[in-house]
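Possible race condition, two jobs.
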Amino acid sequence: MNGALMKASSRVAIAAALGLALGAGSAGAADLGGNCCADLEERVAELEATTARKGNRKMSLTITGQVNRTVLWWDDGHDSRTYYGLDNTNSSTRFSLLGEAKISARWKTGFEIMVELGAGGTTSTVNQFNEDGTFSGITGPISGAGALQFNSANNDPFLDTRRAVWWIEHKDVGRLSVGRTESAGVVNTIDLGGISVVASSSAILLNAAFFLRGSAGEVFPAIYFNMMDPASSQGRSELIRYDSPTIAGFIASASIGEAGDYWGAMLRYAGEFSGVRVAGGVGYEKVDDCLTPAAFSGTPVAAAVGANPAGFCVGGKPDISAWGAALSLLHVPSGLFVQGHYMAVDYGNPAATASLYWGQNAANKKDADQWLIQAGIAKNWTGLGNTALYGEYGVSNDWGAGLGAGRNYTVPAGTTEASTGLTELFNVTGTEVTIWGIGLVQNIDAAATELYLGWRRFSTDLACSTNCVTGAGAASNLSTSDLDVVAAGARVKF
C-alpha cells in the first residue's frame, strides 16, 4: 500500500469524523464515553480498503503509454486526399500496466499488460476508397461510383492485447517470460536515430491497405500488404521466452510458442567505442503452425490432434524459415547516424495455404526478401530536444509473387470486374517495391512529445508469365502508378 495515500485517506476520514462530532455538539451534548473511536477506526479501515493504490505492499504498479495520432495525405497518381486524426500504426496509441517485486538480492519478478486502441481508422487500414480503416478483404459488388467496401477483421474493435506476460529474473542467469509477447527471431532495424515513429522498418504500416493502380487509373485487387513484408520483425504470440543477462554488450534470446511449432532465437549487441554508438543483431525463426480455420468442414475437432482433417492445414503444414540481421551506427558528438537491416523468408512448403505467418496467405508462395537503409543526423539544435533529419531507401522483393505460372489477384467469388470496378491481375511471378523517403522528428523533452513529418514513395513493378492483365500471351512486365504518402503528427508519452 502506498504510505502517502494511506495517511492522506486517514486524515480525510478523521477530519470528516471531527466535523460530524462538532456538528453534533452544536445540537446537544456529545457522548465522550469509552467507545467513542470504534466507529471512526472502522470507517478509516473502509476508506483505506477502497483507496486507489500504486500496486500493493509487495508488487509495484506503473501505468505508462502513449497517444500517437496523425494526419495522412496520399496521392496514388490518379487521386489524392487527406485523412485526419488517424492512429499511427508505426507506434500505435496504447497503454501498459507494469509490475515488479524484489524477491531477494538477486531475484525479482513482475508482469506487463499492454493494450492498444483498436477503434477507428489507422494508417495501416485506410485506403483510397475507405477513410474509416476497417479492412480484411474486398466484399463487393459495388455499383456506379460507390466506394469499395472493407469489413473489420478485428474481433475486438476497441482494444487489442499486445502483451500479457509475467516474468521472473535472476541477475546472473537472465529472465524467463511466460504469456503473450514478442517472440525471439528475425532482427530488423535498430533505431538509434530516433525516427521509427514515422519511418518504421516495416514500411507497410503507413499504406498496407492501399490498392495498386495502373497507369490508366485501373484499380487492381491487390494491396501493398500483398507486395511487402508483413511485419519485418518478431511476431507476438503465446509463448515462453528466455533473455540472457547482458554479457560484454551481448544479449541472447530464445522463445517457443503456440504448440511448439513456432520458435526462434536471436543475438543482439550494444556498445560504444570512441564516441561511436553501435547496435546490431541477427535472428532466426521457424514456423510450422497453420492458421486454425473457423470450422473443420464437419470433421470432429478431436481429429485435429496429430492429423490433418479436411479444412485443416490445407496443403499440409507450413515450413517457414526466416532470418534477419541489422546494424546501426551513431556518431554521438556529431549526431550522424546510419542504420538498416536485411531479412529473407524461405517457404519450405509453398503449397501450404493455411498460414498467415510471414505473408504465406496464398498457395505456391515464392521466397521473399527485403532490405532498408536509413541515414541522417540527430542533434539538439533548439534546446527543446533532438531534431532528427533523415533519408531512406529500401527494396521489397517477391512478397506478392507465386511459383510456377504465378499468382493471381482476382475479384471475390460471385462478383465480376464490372461489378467491383477492379481490374484483375494474372500469373504474377515477380514483384518489386522500391521505397524512398525523407522526413524529420522533433523531440520536445519537457513534454515527453515527438512531432514528426515524413514522406515515402512506393514504386511497384510486376513480372508475369503471361500478359499481366489478360492472363494470356507472352510474358510481360507491369509498372503500377507510384503511391506517395505523407504523415504528420505527434506521439505524446505518459
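Job #2 (started ~2 s after job #1):
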Amino acid sequence: MGEMMRKLNSTYARYHARTRSRHGYLFQDRYKSIATQDQNYIEEIVRYIHLNPVRAGICAGLAQLDRYPWCGHAAIMGNARNNFQDTKTVLRRFGKTDAEARERYRQYLEEGTASSSDTVIRTIRDSNRGRESVFHTGCWVIGDKEFVQKVLASDKEKRIRLATYKREHVDLDGIAEKVASAAGVQVTDILTRSRLTKGAAARQAFAYLCRKELGYPVVEIGRYLGISGPAASICIKNGREVVRKLHLENTIKLS
C-alpha cells in the first residue's frame, strides 16, 4: 500500500508541476494510515471520505457529488473512470451486482449525511491534524477494546519505551539537547539552517530520532526546526545514516 500511494502521489505531483509550471513539493507529508477492525469501520471511513465535498459545501448534495470529478465517489457510481481506483472492492461490500451495490452504497452515503460514527470522524480528524504520534494511539487504531489492545501489543516493546519517555518528560527540547551533546555541537547549531556544518548533520540526526524513536509527526518536527514538512522528511531520511555514522543510536535512551 505504501509503495502504491507513493507512486500515485509522485506521479500526480509531476503532472501538476508540468501542467501548471510549478516547482517544489505538492504534498506536505505522507498519506495517513489507520488500522481498522472490520468491514463496518472500513465502510464508515469510505463514507466519511466521499462525503467530504458535501460537508465542505463544494457539492450541494449527493446528486452533484455523483458527478463530482475530484472524488472517488463518481467512479464508484460509474460516472467517472479512474484507472488507479479499485471500485470493485467497495462495490462488493454492498451487493453482488454493480447495479445493486451502487444503489445500496448510495443509500448508505445518504444515511451518512444525517449521522455518522463519532469514533471514526474523531479518529480521522485527529490523524489529519497530525496527532498520529504514538503518544496519541487513538488516532491510528479503530476497533473495540480487544482489537486495539491486540494492535498495541504488536509493538509492545516500543510502546513501553515511549511511555517511559513521556513519563520522564522527554520532549523536543530535551532530545535536541541530548543530540547536541552527543554530536559535539550546540542546540542553536541544530536549529540553524545550514548544510556545511556539523550542526546540519546533528539536525538530521535529531529529526530522525524524533520521528523513528518517539513517533513525533513530521509536521511537528518541521515546525520545531522552522522548516516545511517535506524538508523535515528529507532530514529524517538523511538522519538515519548520520545516526549510524556518529553512533547516536543510544542518544535518547534513558538510564
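The chain is about 60% helix and 0% strand.
Logs attached separately.
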